[in-house]
């Protein structure tokens, strides 16, 4: 700030010495000029009483980061993260959440959330494509979700190892985020990506990547925050849940406690009169895994999964990255039609030519049909 001249500084000191003495605006102008009044106005403005809550109508896109939503709602990012946690959604400040979750938390904060009506090139393209022939059965796509340390990875590894044991030497040379397993109960595609990724980005435009969710819950730990988060995502996607109660080989295992806790989240066991299958397993030892695979197969039969196998390929990107020697690559699951090497595809708002298709073993394939996970290069 500009320094006052010496005489005026002396006058200013005299003002604050006389704490209880009041000066008129005219006297203040003479003593301090306009500078004092400006400071007084700023001070008064800073301590004005907050205005009452203003309810807003917030337009929500298909996916949005927590930070972007906080800006739209005019709230602190930390407060929004806390509110999401209270709702059972674990999301960081820079993480993406889906439209349903964003609308729900917007309404929880007292505002009106509505889905934005965007014209998407992908939607127009879908309208132009006609599939010939009849729909045929397809393999179920399963996401295995659960709280950290409850055994999700151990279960996936056990199923994967069982598959590799039946293959030629070499096994899986490249992890692509999903794999197909030929089990005793039939062929099943497993998505091996973080639960959040499987139910946020990939749920854009209402397209679910998953047919069935296997919820892994530790028998010695029960319902935890990420368990609840997975339940909320599965419900929002309207996907059936099979509960795999893991670590049944431990002394502290309490199956009835797990059933009771999950019943409070509307996952009522079949033997309690509900519709949810609860399968006791030990992913470490492999106990009950065959029963789980059979339960998945049974659920898939009820769903009667069908799609078109011929025609232009349509699918969902599960993951993408930059790989040395390959450039931009993406793991996709084909949902309809057939993808072929050399096809021109639309990914987001970009059109690219498929240079190669790799299966879960890292081997090149010429085409990929429904429910088959492949790695696309050439993006």
Automatic annotation (TrEMBL):
Q: Which InterPro entries match?
A: EF-G-like_DII, IF2_N, P-loop_NTPase, Small_GTP-bd, T_Tr_GTP-bd_dom, TF_IF2_bacterial-like, TIF_IF2, Transl_B-barrel_sf
What are the record keywords, sorted? Answer: Coiled coil, GTP-binding, Initiation factor, Nucleotide-binding, Protein biosynthesis
Q: Which residues form a coiled coil?
A: 241-268
For this UniProt entry, what's an example GO CC term?
cytosol
Q: Which residues form the Tr-type G domain?
A: 137-306
Any one GO MF term held by the record is: translation initiation factor activity
Q: One Pfam family from the UniProt entry?
A: IF2_N
Family to which this protein belongs: Belongs to the TRAFAC class translation factor GTPase superfamily. Classic translation factor GTPase family. IF-2 subfamily.
By what name is this protein known? Tr-type G domain-containing protein
What organism is listed for this UniProt entry? marine metagenome
């Amino acid at each position: 700030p500009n320094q006052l001249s010496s005489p005026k500084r002396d006058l200013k000191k005299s003002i604050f010495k006389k704490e209880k003495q009041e000066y008129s605006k005219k006297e203040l102008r003479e003593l301090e000029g306009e500078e004092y009044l400006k400071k007084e106005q700023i001070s008064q403005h800073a301590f004005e009483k907050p205005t009452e809550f203003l309810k807003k109508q917030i337009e929500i896109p298909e996916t949005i980061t927590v930070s972007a939503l906080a800006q739209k709602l005019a709230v602190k990012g930390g407060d929004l993260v806390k509110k999401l946690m209270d709702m059972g959604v674990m999301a960081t400040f820079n993480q993406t959440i889906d439209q349903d979750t964003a609308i729900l938390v917007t309404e929880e904060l007292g505002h009106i959330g509505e889905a934005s009506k965007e014209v998407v090139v992908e939607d127009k393209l879908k309208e132009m494509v006609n599939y010939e022939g009849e729909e045929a059965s397809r393999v179920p796509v399963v996401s295995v979700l659960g709280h950290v340390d409850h055994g999700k990875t151990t279960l996936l590894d056990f199923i994967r190892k069982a598959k590799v044991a039946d293959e030629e030497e070499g096994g899986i040379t490249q992890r692509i985020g999903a794999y197909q397993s030929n089990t005793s109960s039939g062929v099943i595609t497993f998505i091996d990506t973080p639960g959040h990724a499987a139910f946020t980005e990939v749920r854009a435009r209402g397209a679910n990547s998953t047919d069935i969710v296997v919820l892994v819950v530790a028998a010695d730990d029960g319902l935890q925050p990420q368990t609840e988060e997975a339940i909320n995502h599965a419900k929002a996607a309207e996907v059936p849940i099979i509960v795999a109660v893991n670590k049944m080989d431990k002394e502290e295992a309490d199956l009835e406690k797990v059933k009771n806790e999950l019943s409070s989240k509307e996952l009522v066991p079949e033997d309690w009169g509900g519709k949810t299958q609860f399968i006791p397993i030990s992913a470490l030892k492999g106990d009950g895994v065959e029963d789980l695979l059979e339960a998945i197969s049974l659920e898939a039969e009820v769903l009667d999964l069908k799609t078109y196998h011929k025609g232009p390929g349509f699918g969902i990107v599960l993951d993408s990255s930059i790989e040395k020697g390959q450039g931009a690559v993406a793991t996709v699951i084909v949902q309809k039609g057939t993808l072929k090497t050399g096809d021109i595809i639309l990914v987001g708002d970009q059109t690219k030519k498929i240079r190669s298709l790799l299966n879960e073993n890292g081997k090149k394939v010429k085409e990929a049909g429904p429910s088959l996970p492949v790695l696309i290069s050439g993006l």
